[in-house]
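Project standup — Tuesday

K.O.: blocked on the structure for the chain from last sprint. Re-posting the sequence here as requested.
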Amino acid sequence: MVMKMGRTRFLLILMCVSAGLWLVFAKLVVPPAIESAYRGESLPVLNGLIQGQHVNPVSYYLEKWDAISGRCLVGVLIFWPVALLLGSPAFFRRFVGEATPGSLGAIRMWTCAVLLLMTSLEDLASIALLPVETRNPKGMLEYFYRLPIGFERLVTSETSLGVFQLLTELLLVLGLVGWRTRIVIPLAAFCHFLLSGIIIDHSFFWHQNLVLLYVMLVLAFTPCGDGWSVDRLRKVYQGRAVPSADHTSAVYGWSRYTCWVMIALPYVANGLSKLQDGGLFWWNPTNMRSMLYGDALKPREFDWALSLHLGSAPDILFALLGIVALLTELSFGIVLFSRVARRILPVAAMMMHIGIFLLQRILFLDLILLQFVFFDFTPIRKAIGVRLAIKRGRLQVLYDGLCPLCCRTVRLLTCFDLFSRLEFLDFRRLDLNEYNRSHMHNLALKDLEEEMYVIIQGQTYRGFYGYRRIALALPAMWPLAPWLFLPGISFLGAFIYRFVARNRLQLLWCDSHCPVRPSEESE
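H.V.: unblocked you, prediction finished:
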């Protein structure tokens, strides 16, 4: 109790100090800067930020700043009580929970994959063909046009825009596979922010991909490369320490929870905006008919008009559509506090977006796909692994535990073993006579020293042919597996394998990383 009171008092002091510092900044620092920029006596960049000096008086800008600073002060005062609540152990145990590095890594992969899909559907280079008069910079993009960085030349060059889109897609691919995530994820988020801003400036404000961008910004500050990533595989191969794939931690739990917050809050805000703009009876049949019929008559890329066929439908149908949509958005925040809601509301959101697509011809593909981050597929993955083990058996891989290259290769294969199909056995630690007797094999120590052996359902495969069986068992290698069965590949593969096996002790020197046991690392 004493510790709790001390922590509460400390946060109250922080709240008062931060509010006081903000008031000093908002009242004593910014107003003189605005007046100086209004008179053109400040830095050129700041002078250009204030438009319409000859139209609006300086008091206009000061009043706007007062409104902004007031909202920020309210945010500061709300932040610390919320931080006190979120920081309590009870809140963490009940609503947040620990998570594995793979859970966060899967969110990173899925977010980058969806954002890559949405980016590839755009034709950014065509923006350069539009007249400059159609451009209406908004928000942060307005400042990029004013900075002396050549942003104007980028937007008016078809080649430059095409290269920029390819760069964004490349960064998203690297983020998907988890290569240098500490650098790649922030860069991918920034590039997609610019790409979306350029398109919006030449059209109208729309909120496709915005929630994905929010999640990417959160991932940029999390250890999202600790699971399901090339970064992890590189460390595992080198024998460096990595977080256990099956061990849960508060760091990954909070990171995952913050991603959920970035998805849930926009839904709640969208529902509140409907009530603010349309009142408590936004869902009334007249309003719903007006929206659906109006969207059906607007020119869009999809040419059906299902809403117009509902002209004879009763009012109760339109009212139900509005109520369901409104309740889905307003209640979506419950996913932050209920495991049951995390199973129901994402499905409801998918159905809502599918309904919007069919009746209003507006496709929120990004939001439909993003709902999968709320589901945990680990039980399904483990159930598939158990089913495969019963039906097809596990692959026993006999390797040389004194070979550095073999140990590192086994560590990598363990990470790729999604359905736990492989069982690695170090024949140096094995009673070979007992193994041959119990499994009815005739394996010789000399043969095991020369090649790796894979045994499945009593059949023995050695060297390259063993790797070919492993490729069929690991989903990550399925794209490669068909090529390993082409005519001539067996001869070439066996030759390369024998060359590597003969020289394996020269290819890698045994160092301090060699003793790391492969079985301790799993994805």
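K.O.: great, moving the ticket to review. The beta strands are 395-399, 422-426, 453-456, 459-462. The chain has a mean pLDDT of 85.
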